[in-house]
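To whoever is on call:

I kicked off a structure prediction for a single chain this morning and the downstream step that reads the tokens threw a length-mismatch warning. I double-checked the sequence; it's 271 residues and nothing unusual in it as far as I can see. Pasting both halves so you can look.
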Amino acid sequence: MSVHSNVKKVTTHTLHEMKNAGQKISMLTAYDFSMARIVDEAGIDVILVGDSASNVMAGHETTLPITLDQMIYHASSVVRAVQRSLVVVDMPFGSYQGNSKEALSSAIKIMKESGGHAVKLEGGQEIIESIGRILTAGIPVMGHLGLTPQSIYKFGTYVVRAKEDEEAQRLIEDAKALEAVGCFAIVLEKIPAQLAEKVAQMVSIPIIGIGAGNGVDGQVLVVHDMLGINNEFNPRFLRKYNNLHEQMMNSFHAYIKDVRSGDFPNESEQY
């Protein structure tokens, strides 16, 4: 019996209860076993195995290159570490758009091979059919509206979305459609705070924001960004809770110095 067997797991139902009780939901990304274990132990409600792994772990400029199998590799590493958090896995670009049959088989493959608890898809009414199909298999779906990084080439930029009335209205309709089809939650990325708050009040499912202000039901950040490991990324919505880049640099420099001087290993560090 594991030491954690008495830990109450977070489920999609838990998140609904949290919204109804006015409790905010915390969500962070993780892509590997060691990081996921710490994030889970800390008590984070939801772990997103984001397609941001494409940027953070693989060094690609966009999220587009990451494959379904690579997402499954990251997700299964995370799932093996987790005792409590709900693990949501991003469906990568090309695995669900425009073909609901393919969307369903991609989602089933993710769930079977990674052991994740839910999937996340970017888009609104244009992917409703895919979402509906995935839900028929009993797979929970989280939506994602606003800035949708998989559509970067369509918009050409990562600027704030839905500032114009027409786009804002479309986002509201998309959110209602995602709720109606059966999504258990929606991520809203980089949209005006007032609009995000309005959406959170209009729908009964939890709204998780990233760069969407404080009037939503929870927040998500990329773990490497909030820990200050990744130094190049400084959007307005990011709060850095640490400067691990600097701390790690100091440790590496000290190690190099100790190796070169012969100080490491010392007598107590050898057999």
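Update from on-call: the warning came from a stale cache, not from the record. Cleared it. Sanity check on the structure: Residues 4 and 83 are 7 Å apart (CA to CA).
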